[in-house]
Amino acid sequence: MRITAPAVSLNVTDVPASSAFLVRHFGFHEEMAANGFASLTRDDIAMNVIFLRRGLPTLPADQREDHAGGVILAFTVDDLEGELARLQSEGVTITMPLTEDAWGERAFQVRDPNGVIVQLLDWNGAGAPDDSVHKNR
Known about the structure:
Layout: E1 7-12, H1 15-26, E2 29-34, E3 37-41, E4 48-53, E5 72-76, H2 80-89, E6 94-100, E7 106-111, E8 117-122, H3 131-134
Parallel strand pairs: 1-4, 5-8
Antiparallel strand pairs: 2-3, 3-4, 6-7, 7-8
InterPro entries: Glyas_Bleomycin-R_OHBP_Dase (IPR029068), Glyas_Fos-R_dOase_dom (IPR004360), VOC_core (IPR037523)
Domain VOC: 2-123
Pfam families: Glyoxalase (PF00903)
């Protein structure tokens, strides 16, 4: 098997709201969009975030009404405190305050208008593993 591109697809009620949230606050842009569908990316990551409207008939019947619950969109960033301050200044509610785990991961979370969790993190804590391990994530 050869994987040519990674993506995460999330079922949400309001596709334009989730799309606009990633565009406005996280620098994504829409590559494609149609009724009930949006595919977003950034120039500095090689993956797409796809939003699908719940109930789409193109989804298998047992998935149509599922919601993106339990999924966390996690992005490693260079300036965690700067991103936290920027999002706060933009009026984004921080739903999990900045925390540091024993293994060195530091993170905070926000939620988009559909409840999708977006987590920003870094590995700059005191117990952080060798940085070269995480550059390939």
